[in-house]
Amino acid sequence: MLEVENITVRYDTATVLDEASLRVEKGELVGLVGPNGAGKSTLLRAIAGLIKWEKEVLKGTRQADITFEGRIEFDGERIEQLPASEIARRGLILCPERGRPFAEMTVKDNLLAGAYLCKDRNEVGSNLDNVYKLFPRLKERQNQISGTLSGGERQMLCIGRSLMHQPKFLLVDEPSSGLAPKLKEDLFRRVEEIYQELGVTILLAEQDVSFAFDLSARNYVMSRGHIIAHGTAQELLGDETIRKTYLGL
Ligand SMILES: Nc1ncnc2c1ncn2[C@@H]1O[C@H](COP(=O)(O)OP(=O)(O)O)[C@@H](O)[C@H]1O
Ligand SMILES: [Mg+2]
Asked: What dihedral do alpha carbons 33, 34, 35, 41 form, nearest 10°?
C-alpha cells in the first residue's frame, strides 16, 4: 500500500535522511523505532508531503536549501510530487508528534477543523460520533478550550482530529511521548482499536520500543537517517548488536 524508496532529505549540508526505504502492506501495523534524532519524524513528514511544502514555503529565504529526493508510492500511484493536501485527500494522514490543537478553540471545533476536506455534513457528524466513541473523554470535554487540556487529552485530540479525515493510512508520530504509564497504556489500546476495529493501516514511529513492538507485526529500525534493520520484534531483539546499540535494551 505504501512504498517508500530512497528518500533523502538534507537541510543545507546536514543529511537527515539518507536513502531511507520501507514498505507497508494494506492492513499492517508497522513500527518505526529509533532514538531521538534518528529521523523518524522527518521520514513521516516526507511521506505526508510536508518536506516539499517546507521547501516551497522557504523558497527565496535564507533557509531555502532543502533537498528532498526519492520515490513514494501510495495505493499504486506516485505521490512524492503531490501537494500535502492532495496526499491527505487520498487518505494518507499524518498525526504529528506532540501535535498542537488550536489552543483557543474548543475540543469539538478542533475535531471539526480536522474534517476540512470532507464536505458532507452527515459524514462529518458520523465521523465525530466515531471519534467520541473511541475517546469518550473528548466527548466529555467537547466544549472545553483545547489549550487547557492535559498532555494525554491533547494526544487523544490529535489522533481524533486525524480520524476526522477517515484515513485509509495513518502515520502516527510518537503517540506515547511524554505520557504517564497509565495514559500510555490507555493510548496503546486506542491505537490497537484504530488498527483492528477501524481497519486503518498504520506506520507508527516510536522511541518507546516496547510500545511499538507490542503492537506491530514488523518494524524498521532507524539510526542517524538510515534504516539499519528490519524484522519482527523477536528477530530484532534476538540480535545483540541491534538490541544493545540501536534499541538501548
Ligand atoms: N527543519 C529542520 N532543519 C534542520 N534540521 C532538522 C530539521 N528538522 C529536523 N532536523 C534534524 O534532523 C534530525 C532528525 O530529526 P527527527 O526527524 O525529528 O528525528 P526523530 O523524530 O527520530 O527524533 C535531527 O538531527 C534534527 O535536528
Ligand atoms: Mg520525532
From this structure: -70
Pocket residues: Cβ below 6 A from ligand 1? 11, 14, 16, 34, 36-42
Structural domains of the chain, count: 1
* CA 38 – ligand 1 centroid, Å: 8
- Predicted TM-score of the model (pTM): 0.93
Question: Which residue minimizes the CA distance to atom 18 of ligand 1?
Answer: 41
* Distance of alpha carbon 194 from the chain centroid: 13
For ligand 2, the distance from its centroid to the CA atom of residue 207, given in whole angstroms, is 8
pLDDT in tens, 74-117: 999 999 999 999 999 999 999 998 778 888 999 999 999 888 77
Mutate to test the pocket of ligand 1, among 42, 51, 226 (most ligand atoms within 8 A of CB): 42
- Which ligand is located closest to the Cα atom of residue 46? 1
Helix (H) or strand (E) run with residue 124 in it: helix 121-134
162: Cβ contacts below 8 Å, ≥ 6 apart: 93, 94, 95, 114, 170, 172
Domain enclosing residue 136, as ranges: 2-246
User: What CATH number is associated with residue 68?
Assistant: 3.40.50.300
Cα–ligand 2 centroid distance for 10 (angstroms): 16
The closest-lying atom of ligand 1 relative to the alpha carbon of residue 43 is: 17
pLDDT, tens digit (0-9, with 9 covering 90-100), for 156-182: 999 999 999 889 999 999 998 888 888
